[in-house]
Write a structure and sequence with these properties.
Helix 2 crosses helix 4. The protein is 61% helix and 0% strand. By secondary structure, it is mostly helical. 14% of the residues are buried. The protein starts with a helix and ends with a helix.
């Protein structure tokens, strides 16, 4: 795909992204390039929103998870922002495309017996007494960790 390497160089040198992030962008954009090749589009500037939606729907049917699809869309959007900035594309065909929502996972909780075992230690030093008090307050109050850490 035209301008892919220039975009990856931009990510590495101007935005200073990690090599893992650049590898993920490369993988996503190579999948996008393969889709463009499949539908015989050689110039990324000629892609429209319908074609991006078709790619996302196709990848979803193939079993790609919602988070992976979100990352794919993010990579495509970022690539087109770069192309627009460089004057190589007139618009971003992925801008209005929404990814499927990822299910939210609830945090796992400890049962009463597990908490009792966790708090069953001898607190005989000032630090141990403090730690036990923090753990009991954390469990019994329902505070978030950041709220607990902010207490004086």
């Amino acid at each position: 795909m035209k301008n892919l390497q220039a975009f990856l160089d931009h990510l590495a040198h101007e935005r200073r992204l990690s090599s893992n992030t650049i590898t993920a962008y490369r993988r996503d954009l190579e999948a996008f390039a393969a889709e463009l090749q499949r539908i015989e589009i050689t110039d990324p500037a000629k892609v429209n929103e319908h074609q991006v939606r078709a790619l996302i729907a196709r990848r979803h049917r193939q079993g790609l998870g919602p988070r992976s699809i979100q990352r794919l869309l993010s990579s495509i959007r970022s690539f087109y922002r770069y192309l627009m900035r460089e004057g190589l594309a007139g618009g971003n065909p992925a801008a209005a495309v929404k990814a499927p929502k990822a299910p939210k996972k609830l945090p796992q909780t400890l049962d009463t017996d597990a908490v009792a075992r966790l708090l069953d230690f001898e607190a005989n030093t000032p630090l141990a007494i403090r730690d036990k008090a923090i753990m009991e307050l954390f469990y019994s109050s329902g505070l978030r960790l950041s709220e607990l850490a902010g207490l004086r």
